[in-house]
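[Automated response] Your request has been received and processed.

Submitted sequence:
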Amino acid sequence: MEAVCTKSFPPVLDYKTEKYLLTKNRKIGVFHRLLQLGILFYIVGWVFIIKKGYQESDNDPHISVITKMKGASVTKNFREFQERLWDVADFVRPSQGENVLFLVTNVISTPGQALGVCPESPTILDGKCREDSNCTAGEPVISGNGIKTGKCNRTHFTCEIYGWCPVENPDVIRKTPLNEAENFTLFIKNSVYFSKFNFSRSNEKKTSNSTYFQNCKYDPVTSPQCPVFKISELITKAGHSFKELSFQGGVVGIDIMWNCDLDQSESTCTPQYSFRLQDRKNNFRTATYYWDRENHEYRDLLKLYGIRFEISVTGEVRKFGLVPTAVSLGTGCAFLGAITLLCDLILLYLNNKANFYWNCKYEEAKPPKRREDTESNLLQHINTD
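Generated structure:
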């Protein structure tokens, strides 16, 4: 006897097998095909072509950065210095730069300071006074230069302090900054190593010409492998001019990005540079101490304004891998299966003929009785009669 299929709802604990049901619902059919095409375009176009989902990556490079600045200039009538030669030992702090260095562009000089009592600077709010009661003895001047002595100086109307005298005068800042520094050059040597692929790269051009780096200047088109940057051009690429920043300083960020595809030639793996202004003001103080013949201690105080360069390096290399390829393909197949499930749900729950499609899709299969059991039941029925 043949098996008989009766229409029924599937019980929860029974096993149900897949059943393919061909429907003549064109709306669902068109919707299904459009979703399939969309998934295919997503997998091929976005995952594999644009995002390169068939590659594995390493975005944690080991980084080495060495910087050197070169240049010199002369300042005339510079107060006590009269005429002075400035070179990288004066302009650049620290003298041996790494990923951060400071280029001096302006200065306030306070030479010959000695420990003693003198009036506080009029620019310090907490140091102003009208009478001695405004200057509490032993109290430090907030954002000032020393400790209050308890007396008010009637000439300057500021508290007298114990500190390094005379105090710094901000009015003596150079009105003509050290603009010669814009012609200095900055050499940035950068090396990266990606341990996952045992791949290393440097931004220096491999050349046998010993004078190449003395004459070349970085240009993204003509000299992309020259790591020598002119200071004025570097700041221009950050969207500003050197003269804007030279008076009170600033902070400039230099980003070096390595983005390499190891499935292509290694010669295509070159760094991309970008420059940005992070702050418009920057300064710090430094002092040189010395003693006279009577063993009295003095110091020359310099407040240095300048441009701080901060170099950051990031990178990612990619290469074909079986695991990411399999994962991307498996994800695509899962999306295609989800489309079929979505169309089934729409057909069985949201369609106006949902009951009809439900009864056609789910049937209960009852196996036929064995022939021997049927004959035995028939003979038993005859004997009973």
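Summary generated for your ticket: Residues 265 and 319 are 12 Å apart (CA to CA). Confidence is low (pLDDT under 50) at residues 1-5.
If you did not submit this request, please reply to this message.
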